[in-house]
C-alpha cells in the first residue's frame, strides 16, 4: 500500500507540463520521495518505540501495543491533504486520443492555477497537428534506428547513455532485490528478529 507507485505517474505528469529547459526539475521531484520516507520514520520512531509491548513480554495486550495504530492515525491526517489537490488529466494524452478541446481546457486551468493566462486555442492545436503530420510524412519515410543512434552520436552522449542505462538497471535490480530477497534471506537464516531488535 503506497510504496512508490505514484513515482512514475508524477514523473510523467511533471515532464508533460514543463518546458524542455526545465526538465532538470525531475531530479528534484525524486528528492521528495526520500524526504517523505525520512518524515514517515520521524513520526514512526517515537510512537512505535514508546507505545509498543516490551520485547520480553509474554502477553501483549492491545492497550500496550498502540504505537503502530497511533502512527496510522497520524498518517491518516497527512493522507487527507491528497484531497486538496486536483490532478488534471495529461493534455498530451487528451490530444493523442483526439480530445483537443479538453486538452486546451486543462491547459487553461493549469495556467489559472499558476496565476497566469494562455491564449492557446483548439484551432492552434489543429493547425500545429497538421503541420507535424505533413512534416512526419516528408521527413520519416520509413522506420529505422536513427533515434537510437543519436544517443551514441558523440563520445559524451555514448558515455551518458551507457551510464544512465546501467544505473537504471542497477537501481531496478537493487530495489527489488533489497525489498523482496533480503527479508526472505533473513527469515531463512533466522536473523530477522535480531536485525529488527538492533534497529529499534
Question: Tags for this entry?
Answer:
mainly alpha; transmembrane helix; 200 residues; flat
SSE run: HHHHHHHHH
* Percent of residues in β-strands: under 5%
Terminal Cα span? 23 Å
Instruction: Give the uncertain stretches in residue-range form.
Output: none
GO molecular function, one term: transmembrane transporter activity
GO cellular component, one term: membrane
Transmembrane segments: 24-48, 68-87, 157-178
Membrane topology: Multi-pass membrane protein
Topology:
Elements: H1 6-17, H2 25-50, H3 67-79, H4 91-96, H5 100-113, H6 122-139, H7 146-149, H8 155-189, H9 192-199
Outline the structure in words:
- Helices cover 68% and strands 0% of the residues.
- Helix 1 (6-17) packs antiparallel against helix 2 (25-50) and helix 2 packs antiparallel against helix 3 (67-79).
- It is mainly α and 200 residues long.
- It contains nine helices and no strands.
- The chain has a domain at 142-200.
What's a concise summary of this model?
This protein has 200 residues and is an all-alpha fold. The chain has helices at residues 6-17, 25-50, 67-79, 91-96, 100-113, 122-139, 146-149, 155-189, 192-199. The model has no long low-confidence stretch (mean pLDDT 78).
Amino acid at each position: 500500500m503506497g510504496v512508490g507507485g505514484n513515482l512514475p505517474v508524477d514523473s510523467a505528469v511533471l515532464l508533460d507540463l514543463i518546458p524542455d529547459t526545465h526538465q532538470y526539475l525531475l531530479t528534484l521531484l525524486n528528492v521528495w520521495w526520500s524526504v517523505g520516507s525520512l518524515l514517515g520514520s520521524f513520526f514512526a520512531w517515537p510512537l512505535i518505540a514508546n507505545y509498543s509491548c516490551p520485547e520480553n513480554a509474554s502477553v501483549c495486550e492491545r492497550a500496550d501495543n498502540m504505537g503502530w495504530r497511533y502512527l496510522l492515525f497520524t498518517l491518516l491526517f497527512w493522507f487527507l491533504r491528497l484531497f486538496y489537490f486536483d490532478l488534471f488529466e495529461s493534455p498530451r494524452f487528451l490530444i493523442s486520443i483526439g480530445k483537443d478541446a479538453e486538452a486546451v481546457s486543462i491547459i487553461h486551468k493549469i495556467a489559472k492555477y499558476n496565476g497566469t493566462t494562455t491564449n492557446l486555442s483548439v484551432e492552434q492545436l489543429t493547425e500545429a497537428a497538421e503541420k507535424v503530420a505533413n512534416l512526419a510524412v516528408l521527413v520519416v519515410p520509413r522506420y529505422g534506428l536513427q533515434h537510437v543512434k543519436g544517443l551514441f552520436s558523440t563520445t559524451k552522449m555514448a558515455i551518458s547513455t551507457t551510464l544512465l542505462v546501467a544505473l537504471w538497471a542497477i537501481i531496478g535490480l537493487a530495489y527489488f532485490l533489497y525489498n523482496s530477497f533480503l527479508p526472505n534471506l533473513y527469515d531463512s537464516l533466522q536473523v530477522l528478529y535480531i536485525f529488527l531488535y538492533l534497529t529499534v
